[in-house]
Amino acid sequence: xxxxxxxxxxxxxxxxxxxxxLGFAAWGVYNGLVTDQQKVEAQWAQVENVYQRRADLxxxxxxxxxxxxxxxxxxxxxxxxxxxxxxxxxxxxxxxSDPAALxxxxxxxxxxxxxxxxxxxxxxxxxxxxxxxxxxxxQSQLEGTxxxxxxxxxxxxxxxxxxNTRVLRFPGNLFARxxxxxxxxxxxxxxxxxxxxxVDFTN
Length: 203
Known about the structure:
By secondary structure, the chain is an all-alpha fold. It has six helices and no strands.
């Protein structure tokens, strides 16, 4: 075997070994990206669950308030319309990479939260309503749901941050674009959003 042939075989061996190493690296990065992406999507499902729980409380809450404060039609209508708006919005997993889409979703949910806060302020003027057992139960459920929303949003942002770190950090950034993995959007904090709305009317 000539020196040229030996050199050629040596180069070929190096190329093959390099390709194998690169393949294993790509496989590891891809699996890591898939795992983190699934965590983001699973946490998003939890966010949607708690938002849906809040929306499900609205009809009974509105009906209960209407029984004592039916003439507060403007506030009641605002809550009903805000609920309809969030109900019409759909966020697919693909849209989690679109900051504008997530912002629009967040604004719609914030609109419902604001409408509910105004409704609860109205309740202050009706002592009999505040003492109603059905209302007290709904109020307690709403308070718990608002707390869960705050927690699940925070956990979603944490999952998205872990995923984005893998996408942006070497060597993940070398493969993420090739495999079609893009950054995920975050929930953006508004003033006071680190605290759940106060909906305690037991005093």
